Structure formats: structure tokens, C-alpha cells
Amino acid sequence: MTSDPYTVPIGTACTGTAATAYTVPIGTACTGTAGAAYTVPIDTVDWHTGGEPFRIVPTAPPAVTGHGPTVAERRTAAMADAGVQWTRALLCGEPRGHADMYGAFLVPPDDAGAHLGALFWHKDGFSTACGHGTIALGAWAVATGLVPAPADGTTDVVIDVPSGRVTASVRTAGGRVADVTFVNVPGHVHARGVEVATSQGTVTVDIAYGGAMYAVLPASRLGLRVRPRDVTALVAAGREIRDALNVAHAAEHPEDARLSGVYGTVFTEEAGGQVERPDGTRLLHHRNVTVFADGQVDRSPCGSGTAARVALLADAGELRLGDELRHESVVGSVFRARIERSTTAHGRPAVVPAVTGTAYATGTSRFTVDPDDTLVPGFVLR
Q: Which one of 14, 30, 130, 302 is the catalytic residue?
């Protein structure tokens, strides 16, 4: 009998010379009774950031945990490895997940300058960046004591992700995580006024990079609003726009082909007028919904999408140093974003964005697979 990856049939002897991720520790007996779950379990810790799920897998598959590669290289290895893809599909798809599940395998960082590395995944594969996941990882690292923090203060959790090194500044108050600000990689405008033919007519979008490439446009250009009842239509439009732009190679990264391609479509609308604050800075209040990968809907305001939005607003002069963007999601959760500093990237004007949000633990899971299960690693329905 041939077992699926990471499963152990009834009666298998599990002794060995070394224990590795997803294998049974030395000396463990794997015999069980018929009908019982008898696979090696995969433990996860589940969080949400602004309503968007984030499933943390502390022990990643062996193919992406060895010494040496960068996190960007580990992402490439993950995409090419059948066992890693199987595990991603198992944890993301039904019946253990759903079409909009999101998570990460924790991997070694690029060097000792970071606390951890993360490979972000969703139902269609592995992404280059994830803002809501960075916020959740920062909160988790402090809440679990992985990164020591004072009862009151701010602690930096440094994380290597495929797009580069990011920092989650975790603010604690009374011994609890109050909020997390992640300082992203530099974001820049890639293109303005790109025309895209859709089934609803031709629309014009801007393309910006915030750790991943995003197409950004007001929802009103399609006669829609950023609201739950329009989500189905926004998903269809987001897919069309992303696919058309990628066929046209409209979002080629200037230096790293692994970061090329439109990852998501951000539909925006103003949620309130601009407010002039007493110190002369401005508060902008916008709402958005991000449709990413192949039709996934971000319940949060989308961290890397917010970073791309900051780059666009800064380029237009609408968001200046000291100003704040209150970025609201389709479910009403909020990120607060600002320009950390101006810089250049790939010879272009760029900004380093800082995005603040909150994340909360929702539970822990121990997932198993019965070798007789015919629906492994799972499926996705929308």
C-alpha cells in the first residue's frame, strides 16, 4: 500500500535514525485501530487580521526548511515541489479550509538579522508578500514569547518574505498586543492609465508595487460599490482585469522576474472627505476590496494592497509625509497607513509605507488524513 505524502498506514513501524518535519519522532509506534485517524498530524495556529484568515504552520515541509536558500529561493522550491504543494492544498482547501483561506509555512530567515522567514500561501499557490500575514506573524511572535517583549512598549519582529525583509513593530499595553505596524519594502508606481478591455467595457487602471503588483481603480468605473452585495461582481471583474494585464505582460518587475505579474485588483472608493488636522497634516478615508490570486477576496483592507495604494497616493501628491490613510475593508475593518520615508527603487521615486492593524488568535488545529480518504488533499468550491 502506498501512502500519500506525510501519511503513515496502519501497522507501519516508525522508528528511524533521525526525525524530520512531518515524520514521526524516533521510537514512536504508529499502530492504530481501524477507523481511527492514524496519520502524522500537522499542527497549525490560526489567526485573523481584520477578518482575513491566517493559518500559521510552525513546522514547514522539509523541502523548504534546509540550510542555505533565501526565502525567495524557498518560494521557488515550494512551487516546484509536489509534497509542499500537496500540504498547501491540504491545509488551504476544503474540508480543512476554504476558497479564501490564507496561511504561511514558517521557514529559516535569510540570515541572523531576522527572527523568522515566511512562505505565504493561498488556494492557487505562493505569494510574494502579505501585509495582513505580516501583522499576524508579529502579533503571534510576541504573544507566544518567541520574540520577548515588555508589558508596555514596542518590539520589532523582523521577518524575511519572498519580496524582501519587513519589520512588524508590535505595540504592547498591559501585557497584551495592542496593534502591529509593519514597515514594508519600498513601493512605487509601475504604470498609470493602462486601458483594459473587460466584458463591461474598457476601463483604465493604475499599476503599483507594494510587495506584489496590483491593478488599482475606483469601483465606480464598473458601476459598482465597495460593499458586500457587490463582491460577486467585483470578483468577476478583478479576475478579468488581472488576467488581461498578465496576458499583456503589463506588470513586469524591473529587476526580479519572480515579482512580475499582477497579483490582485484593488477596487477603491472614498469613504469620507479629506480632513485637515490641527497640526497641518491630512487624514484621508478610503474604502477598498482586493481581489487577489484567482478570485480570492481579502476581508481585511489588504496590507500589501494598502502599500501599493500609498505609493499611488504619494505619487499623486494626495498623501504626504505626516498624512494618514484610513483604509477600510469591505467588512468594515480598518488599517491606518502612512509614508515612513521617501526613497528610490529601481531608479524610480518610491516610498516606504507603514501600515498599522490588529490581529487576533482564533484557535489551534491538528490536521490528519485517513489513508482511505478519497478526497485528499481536498478541493475548492466558490
A: 130
